[in-house]
Design goal:
Layout lengths: L6 H11 L2 H6 L6 H15 L6 E5 L5 H8 L3 E5 L3 H10 L5 E3 L12 E7 L8 H10 L1 E12 L6 H8 L11 E3 L6 E3 L2 H10 L3 E6 L5 H7 L3 H4 L3 E7 L7
Parallel strand pairs: 1-2, 1-4, 2-3, 4-5
Antiparallel strand pairs: 5-9, 6-7, 8-9
Keywords: Methyltransferase, S-adenosyl-L-methionine, Transferase
GO biological process, one term: methylation
Enzyme class: transferase
Length: 243
């Protein structure tokens, strides 16, 4: 666990900083990065979800749960922050089930065909129990997909804008990354991948998405073309060989 932080404190921070305005602005497809870099990869990795049961672990305002439901999935969304789960319930169709719970302390659930955990693990101080809970919620041979801010290229946009290049002084240590919304926590890539292997998963694919140059030209975000700001991993559960 990251020093001086608890899951409860992180959840409270998300609860108090998630304004109605910010949730409305991202209610359809998420923010710019999710629309252009994260969502397309997640949907490709999940494949055809029609009739499949999917757990959206750390669903936030529920936008990705709604995307999955529109594609025919039977969706359950889990979110610990009260303001976010309330908004998700308000916006979603009746066929999406929502549960307010800390991912590290999930109640017993029926196994899902897939669990997707998008942009969540790097925001959880005690993240290993949360990852374990996600893996345990997948049926054997099912799919666990997670997306995080790329540990090697955190704060990419701001650093590039200031210096015209990416700069990083520390990588191997674990530390807090403060932001205007809620804190993230840096950990090396190996921490996440080794934990996936330790949980008996076989990594199918690792994706470091880059922004389409034409989209970048229109938005003025050159850094996302040259370097990946996100890391997305798809793993099959119940595979003793791990990696």
């Amino acid at each position: 666990m990251t020093s001086a932080w608890t899951n409860e404190a992180a959840i409270q921070q998300w609860d108090t900083t998630s304004t109605r305005e910010s949730m409305e602005a991202t209610a359809e497809r998420g923010d710019f990065a999710k629309q252009h870099l994260v969502n397309p990869v997640l949907l490709r990795l999940l494949g055809d979800v029609r009739g499949r049961t999917v757990l959206d672990a750390g669903c936030g305002n529920g936008y990705f749960s709604r995307i999955l439901a529109a594609r025919g999935a039977e969706v359950t969304g889990v979110e610990p922050a009260g303001s976010l789960i309330s908004f998700a319930r308000e916006k979603s169709a009746e066929d999406i089930s929502y549960l307010q719970a800390d991912l590290a302390q999930l109640p017993e659930l029926e196994p899902f065909d897939a669990v997707v955990c998008s942009m969540v693990l790097m925001a959880i101080p005690d993240w290993k129990p949360a990852m374990r809970a996600c893996v345990e919620a997948v049926r054997p041979g099912g799919l666990f997909v997670f997306a995080i801010v790329h540990p090697a290229f955190e704060e990419l946009f701001g650093t590039w804008r200031e210096h015209g290049e990416y700069r990083r002084k520390e990588y191997l240590a674990e530390y807090e990354i403060a932001s205007g919304h809620a804190a993230d926590f840096h950990r090396p890539i190996s921490a996440y991948l080794n934990e996936v292997a330790a949980l008996g998963c076989r990594v199918r694919e690792v994706v470091e998405p880059g922004l389409d140059p034409e989209v970048a030209k229109a938005s003025g975000i050159e850094s996302y073309v040259r370097m990946p700001n996100f890391l997305i991993v798809a793993a099959e559960t119940g595979c003793p060989s791990g990696l």
